[in-house]
Amino acid sequence: QVQLVESGGGSVQTGGSLRLSCEPSKYTAGLGSMAWFRQGEEKAREGVASITCGGTTKYADSVKGRFTISRDDAKNTLSLQMDSLKPDDTGLYYCALSNFCNSPGLNPTGYASWGQGTQVTVSS
């Protein structure tokens, strides 16, 4: 497993933006598919967005058109740009890493390494 570290969470008002970042605790070559998940209070963990080694992306319907996932393998960084935030986006956001380039998409069972999470709070 790879230790992942998220950053960039915070508190914003409805309509605001945040950019989350995730990187391994030490440089790791050949990262597999990656994804962002979130878990709101008293809610199950849900997939938000995923990206394959080749850059193919997948989004949850609830964030399409508002969130953008990207990766920079040279910098060993995964990012999530979140715009037009809504109170329903509130939650603890986790990044996840698969051991493979074939993406498990938004299925959490396909990811072997997880970060500790970064809190996003959107107020109305």
If you had to describe this structure to a student in words, what would you say it looks like?
The chain is globular, with a radius of gyration of 13 Å. It contains no helices and eleven strands. The chain has strands at 4-7, 10-13, 18-24, 34-39, 46-51, 57-59, 67-72, 77-82, 91-97, 113-114, 118-123. The mean pLDDT is 95. Strand 4 and strand 5 (46-51) form a beta hairpin.
Distance between the termini: 38 Å
**What is the alpha-carbon Rg in Å?**
13 Å
Number of distinct beta strands:
11
Unreliable segments of 5+ consecutive residues: none
Give the count of helical stretches. 0
- Helical content band: under 10%
Keywords:
mainly beta; 0% helix; single chain; 11 strands; 124 residues; 7-stranded mixed β-sheet; globular
Quick recap of the structure?
The chain is an all-beta fold and 124 residues long. The protein has no helices and eleven strands.
